[in-house]
Each structure stands twice: as structure tokens, then as C-alpha cells.
Amino acid sequence: LQTLRATAALANGGNLLTPTLVRDSAGARVSLALPEADLRVVHEGMRAAVNAGGTAAALDNPYLAVAAKTGTAEVGLLKENINSLVIGFFPYEAPRYAFAVILEKSKAGNTNGAPAAMREILQWIVENRPEMRNPQ
């Protein structure tokens, strides 16, 4: 949850949100006073990680502009498993949704980590929730 809050703050211009379970409630919001130029660099780097052959290329989708960052740690004596992380937001042009996927001890390899899991979720969104794809 902390990782998701931090990702949302990057996406929304530097406001740290407090989650709420009440529908239509905005929750508390604290400005982190992050410089706009710095946020722009982070956004551009996270987008490039997806659409310019970066570590989050598994999330590249022609119907949904995503920005993301990945992290991986090898686990086990023979490095046969990984702990995998992907954070990000979409749509890139006007972020509305942030995500964080963390997988522990999945089999090593690019097809088994958090980006692969998130790719499946994004594909479902593209096919079933078109309203989530467009900036508003």
C-alpha cells in the first residue's frame, strides 16, 4: 500500500493520498512539493521504460499508454526464483490510475515476474473497461 501511495504521488503531481474505503470520498491529500521539472523527468523515464525497450516493455500496449518502473531481486542459492515488482500509472497523458504488483518467489525468467502479471491485467482493462483507457 505504501508503494502504491508513492506511485500515485508521482503520477498526480506530488500529492500523497490517504486511501479510503468510502465510495466517492477523496480522502486526505498532502502535497509533497515535488518540483514539476523533476516529476516530468520521472514521468518521461517511466514511459520510456515501457515504450522504448526498457525493463517494463511487457506493459507496452497500443491501446493504453502506461508508465512504469520495475525491480527484481534474485532469490535462492542457485538464483532459481525472483522477487519482482512493477509500479506505474495510466493513462500516461492524464494519469487516473496507479498500480503496484509485488510477487515473491516466482520462477526466474522474464515471463513469470510482476510485469507479466500486470500485462494480463492491462489486457483485461483494454478488452473489458474501455473507459479506463482514455484520459479525462
Briefly say what this structure is.
This protein is of the alpha+beta class and 136 residues long.
Walk me through the topology.
Layout: H1 2-11, E1 15-17, E2 29-31, H2 36-51, E3 67-75, E4 81-90, E5 97-107, H3 114-128
Antiparallel strand pairs: 1-2, 3-4, 4-5
Structure description:
30% of the residues lie in helices and 26% in strands. It has helices at 2-11, 36-51, 114-128, and strands at residues 15-17, 29-31, 67-75, 81-90, 97-107. The model has no long low-confidence stretch (mean pLDDT 91). The longest helix is centred in the N-terminal third of the chain and has 16 residues, at 36-51. The chain is of the alpha+beta class and 136 residues long.
Task: Considering the chains and any ligands shown, give keywords for the structure.
single chain; 136 residues; alpha+beta; three-stranded antiparallel β-sheet; two-stranded antiparallel sheet; globular
Average pLDDT: 91
Taking the sheet with the most strands, its summary is:
3 strands, antiparallel
Number of strands: 5
Query: What gap, in angstroms, lies between the N and C termini?
Result: 25 Å
**Strand-residue proportion:** 25-35%
Low-pLDDT ranges: none
Compressed to H and E, one letter per element, the order equals: HEEHEEEH
The number of helical segments is 3
What level of helicity do the residues show? 25-40%
Assembly annotation: single chain
The computed structural class is: alpha+beta
